[in-house]
Specification:
It is a single chain. The protein is of the alpha/beta class. Helices cover about 35% and strands about 15% of the residues. It contains 15 helices and 12 strands. The strands form 2 sheets. A 7-stranded mixed sheet has the order 1-7-6-5-4-2-3, sandwiched between helices. A 5-stranded mixed sheet has the order 8-9-12-11-10. β5, α8 and β6 form a beta-alpha-beta unit. It is globular.
């Protein structure tokens, strides 16, 4: 990572201030070539050999993410799932991992199918985490805030446990974003983002990313998994991602402000049984969130609707401004009945609606949701 003393919001807005040497362009070119010319002696002094591992379109967004996460390096992937699974696939044979009971459902399902020996625990219960560690444990995976109940993990405490046992801590920080939390500075070794979400912010690409505290042998294995499995992002998608990252701070800050306003209003709504949002002072993880999330508590919250599953589904059916759609972190607000999506075995309560709060006028968002809850 190139040392830069500017504020992270400035680094993001200017994408590190890189200028194309040849054209003096402020916006980067899209590199579409899949291969690169060898030198006459068969070498590659350009540093580029083949696009699967040497895509020049990755240089700037990876450098920006490393800077925002205060890491040594970063790597783009074809999706958040590709990024997350690469970390687990980099483990050695027989090495044990721990993951949260409540986490992104797609990764949880893959982990159960890929390695039934992985232990799932409540990451908010430090004694449970400590009790799950084995001599063969080499990775602890955390997600905070955790999707879709927005529980909080004490990253510094879990990192200390992991390192004391010879394990690494990897953190899915998709919903916190580097605007609010830098897990590497709290002791984590790897931070993961589904870049489809907030890093991009415009619901027009699928991408994933990892940032690392150290360029060590484990990181080299992750990069090898990316190349060998072909889990690479396209050049145009890398360009779109960088474009989105330039507005990351303004988007996340507005989403946080809107989410906080909605959480406070909905907690007194007669049709809402519970609001799950770490910004609320009665949230069980609020104190930890206030310590490790700086400048806001995220744009994601969930509500549990009085009347159960059918009342929740009915509420989602009566909105128009809020879009009934999967995903999160875009400029538009989304609403989803998660239990229907996750299916059998989901730890998600059936009366829960997940809200991805966008950057629209918060009064418009509140008015429509309150009307939908009423009918």
């Amino acid at each position: 990572m190139t040392e830069n003393t500017h504020n992270p919001a400035t680094l993001a807005a200017q994408a590190l201030g890189w200028i194309d040497d040849g054209t003096r362009a402020i916006s980067p070119s899209i590199h579409a070539s899949s291969t690169f010319l060898r030198d006459v002696d068969n070498g590659y002094r350009s540093g580029r050999e083949y696009i699967r591992s040497d895509n020049p379109a990755f240089d700037q967004p990876e450098a920006l993410l490393a800077a925002l996460e205060q890491g040594k390096d970063a790597a783009l992937f074809a999706s958040g799932m590709a990024a997350a699974t690469a970390v687990f696939l980099a483990l050695g044979r027989g090495e044990h991992a721990i993951a949260p009971t409540v986490m992104y459902w797609g990764l949880r399902r893959w982990l159960r199918e890929w390695n039934p020996e992985i232990t799932f625990v409540d990451m908010g219960d430090l004694d449970a985490v400590r009790g799950a560690i084995r001599p063969t444990t080499k990775l602890i995976w955390a997600e905070t805030p955790s999707n879709p109940t927005w529980a909080i993990t004490d990253l510094a405490a879990v990192a200390e446990m992991a390192h004391a046992s010879g394990a690494r801590l990897a953190v899915d920080s998709t919903c916190a974003t580097p605007v609010l939390t830098q897990p590497l500075s709290l002791g984590a070794d790897i931070v993961m983002h589904s870049a489809t979400k907030y890093l991009n912010g415009h619901s027009d690409l699928v991408a994933g990313a990892l940032a690392t505290k150290a360029e060590d042998a484990f990181w080299e294995r992750i990069l090898a998994v990316r190349s060998q499995h072909g889990a690479v992002l396209g050049s145009f998608e890398a360009w779109l991602l960088l474009r989105g990252m330039r507005t990351l701070f303004v988007r996340v800050r507005q989403a946080c402000a809107n989410a906080m306003t909605l959480a406070e209003r909905l907690r007194t709504n007669a049709h809402v049984a519970e609001v799950l949002y770490p910004g609320l002072k009665d949230h069980p993880g609020h104190a930890i969130a206030a310590r490790q999330m700086k400048g806001g508590f995220g744009g994601m919250l969930s509500i549990r609707v009085n009347g159960g599953e059918q009342a929740a589904i009915g509420t989602a059916a009566r909105v128009a401004l809020w879009k009934r759609a999967t995903s999160l972190g875009g400029v538009e607000s989304l609403i989803e009945h998660r239990a229907s999506i996750e299916g059998e075995g989901s730890p998600c309560p059936p009366d829960l609606l997940r809200l991805s709060v966008g950057i629209e006028d918060v009064e418009d968002l509140a008015a429509e949701l309150e009307a939908a809850l009423k009918n």
